[in-house]
Amino acid sequence: MSKAPAFVIVLSLLLVSVAYAGDLSPGLQRQIRGMQDHDEIKVLVVLSEQADIETLNHELHVTRAPMAERHRRVVEVLMETAERTQPSFLAELDSGRETGVIREVKPYWLINAVSVVTTVDALADLAARDAVDIIEPHLVVEPIDPILPDPEKGGVVPRGGITPGVIAVQADRVWNELGIDGTGALVANLDTGVDGAHPALSDRWRGNFAPWSECWRDGIGFGDATPIDRHYHGTHVMGTICGTAPGNQIGVAPGALWIADNSINQGAGNELDQDVLDALQWFSDPDGDPGTTDDVPDVVQNSWGVHEGFAGYFDCDSRWWVAIDNCEAAGVVTTWSAGNEGPASGSLRSPADRADSPHNAFSVGSTIHSPPYTISSFSSRGPSGCGGPYAMKPEVVAPGSDIWSAQPGGGYQFLSGTSMSGPHVAGVVGLM
User: Fold this and answer.
1) 260 contacts: CB under 8 Å, gap ≥ 6
2) Is 304:142 a contact under the CB 8 Å cutoff?
3) What's the pLDDT tens digit per position in 331-365?
4) What is the DSSP track for 387-402?
């Protein structure tokens, strides 16, 4: 098992000749170079017809539709589009499965797409089909590694049982002056998992009283039916979002319930893992029922991202954008850590560098946890390389240096990184 490196990816897949390059993404074309015709590859085939969620989202916003109506209508439209348009395409793929050219097929509804395991020399036929818009690489992701504390420097022991970062975002004032601690909210993270037995987190896992399958997703496939963190990253992140235990008030929204997905712990994953798209689809409707909302998280923290140093990736890569937009339209706020590639300008990871509106891919940089809250040296900076009128990034900063939070096994530890600043903002969303 290789340890998960920096904050995210390993792409895998395809592209063949210029004759059909229009149907293959640039990242895919780059990825396929040097591969042999018989090499097996996993791709995401995006179909031409997509649900018009942008128009529906605007309509729901203008009419101020209640969250239950928003969730139901968005998910139903997405599911209906997939159910109506995919059967004929899937039938076309059956012949390939019979001959062994296509080995695995998995349809999606969050975006109208199908994951396919095939060979490089079969891509031309796949890309030429009328129903296909574009073929993308299928992604394998890894967490952004936190910056481990300097043993000679140490961290600041929480005063009064409340960590400095929680005090910095004034969450304690919200609890005490407004009487709001996140009770009634549901928070989540897409990370390496969560230690569900940790004393700061165990009693507020939603799976204590709801079906575990809608409260924990073992995306890697370890076989864990209850939350476990075989790394350490996700437990620390969730602790900052909502953790609380006697003498260790580490979370911003300590009254909130939580659910989680471990798909970012890719060190032990394999090429057949469905990764980010699977996770975003699950978060959009964990129980598979568009008519219910108590299972749908109010916010999902994403402490992962990619940058141009990863093979097959290019700046402002847009392959996640539709899935993220559809997930948010269904009622889920997504927050994104900016990355630990600072202090150079324009060093944000993607999708945190997305900049085509004032708020999508809402990104969080890091500061020290105490006044004067200067920017952490490691924190990725803007502006976004995507350019445009919204290129000023990240949107906000929060404490991310020497953050005290939960550690698998019941303990606590100091970690630094934008992986630690992002959950402070996700916790604030939980309070909101």
Assistant:
1) 188, 189, 190, 191, 193, 194, 216, 217, 227, 234, 238
2) yes
3) 999 999 999 999 999 999 989 999 988 888 999 99
4) -STT----SEEEE-SS
